[in-house]
Amino acid sequence: MSSGRKTVTAFLTVIGALLLVILGLSVHWPRWAWAASAAVLVAVPLTATAVWGRRRDPIPRELTLEPDLPLPPLERREQRVRNVALPSDTEDYDFLFSATVRWYPNDVPSGAPLVNPGALAVDAVLGRARNITATRAPNRCTLVQHELNGDLGVMLLDSTGRVHAMAEDVVLTLTEQDRERLGKLSAVRKDEAVWEHERKHEQNKRAYLGEDVLKNTGSAVVWWLAKNDDKIDKAVADLGLLAQLSSAANNQDIPDHLRHLVPRPPADPEEDRGLSAADHFAEMLRAMGLGADDPRCALFVQRVVRAAAAADRTATAEDLRQRFAPAGSSEDGEEAPSGAAGAASAA
Fold first, then answer.
1. Is 70 exceeded by the pLDDT of residue 338?
2. What are phi and psi of 290, to 5 degrees?
3. Which residues does the annotated region (Disordered) include (predicted)?
């Protein structure tokens, strides 16, 4: 009989004795009832002890002679991985992956080879993470981290069928240098987009002006009237300017029928330095409309020659006489009958 059973028997005997005493006192048993109750109280424990003593102990006695062996330690089924480089969709920009990998072994047939379940679990989680990050942009690091937490948070069987694996507390980062480079590239792309927009706007504006507004003088006039529809007289006054603008925009000469509307630019003093008095006199004759056959031309030339000689401009007077005086005229300026041959040659 084991010590546990002996303790139970003694406890029940004491409880039974107390109950019998209380019952006897309450009903005022006679003496013979007290004696019978005491005999029953002693007989019951002895009988129970005899019966239990004949029953076989389920644990062999020889096994209880040794102390209890310690329980084997439980297998640790989680592992922390840190800063594992995973590819992104941009070459040379890798994510840094950290997470806690958890797993439990799968039932396998007897005789299967031993494996390292932790290594299989980590490899399975990294493979699942790599399939996601390889198609994601590195500048979306935080968004991809939340996506990985959701996808890797499901316990799935690995490719070997030996472990179920998942990941928790996923952290996805980039190196400081890569973050700086991506920031600079982003700023450059934004600047290029603005510059390209401005360039296209300028191209459209040039095309509008060159191919539409200033296509010809008529288009320029219509455009001017559309902008200033209440100033028709001003448009008429600016016809010469519009003709110049349209001709310059198309790299063409001003049309002949509009040339009279264009004011002649003032003479450049630098260009006049190479012209003589006789050259300017020839231009004056041409502007006055005095042709070579006009008798007034010869008379006008003679008077200018006399005026130049009187002003002590001997060289100028001689130059004018040689170029414009009629052939056979005398030194005193008398007109020869042959007419203004010199003026004709100068004109």
1. no
2. -90, 110
3. 312-347
Give me the pLDDT at residue 264, please.
65
Contact yes or no for 138/182 (Cβ under 8 A): yes
Query: In whole angstroms, what is the distance from residue 175 CA to residue 94 CA?
Result: 8
pLDDT band for position 68 (cuts 50, 70, 90): low
Strand ranges of the sheet holding 163-173, from the earlier edge strand across to the other edge: 78-86, 95-105, 163-173, 156-157
Three-class HEC string of 164-186: EEEEEEEEEECCHHHHHHHHHHH
Q: Rounded to whole angstroms, how far apart are CA atoms 158 and 163?
A: 6
User: Which of 86, 115, 117, 121 is closest to 100 using CA atoms?
Assistant: 121
Predicted confidence band of residue 51 (pLDDT cuts 50, 70, 90)? low
Q: How do strand 163-173 and strand 156-157 relate by DSSP bridges?
A: antiparallel
Residues forming beta bridges with residue 84, ordered by sequence position: 97
Q: Among the three residues 201, 230, 261, which one is the final residue of a domain in this structure?
A: 261
Task: Quickly tell me which residue has 């003679």 as its tokens.
Answer: 302
Domain residue limits at 281: 274-346
Task: Indicate if 99 and 135 belong to the same structural domain.
Answer: yes
Per the domain annotation, does 300 fall within a domain? yes
Number of domains in the chain: 4
CB of 85 within 8 A of CB of 133?
Answer: no
Region 175-204 average pLDDT: 94
- Domain boundary (230, 261, 292) is at 261
Average pLDDT of every residue of the chain: 80
183 vs 185: CA distance, rounded Å: 6
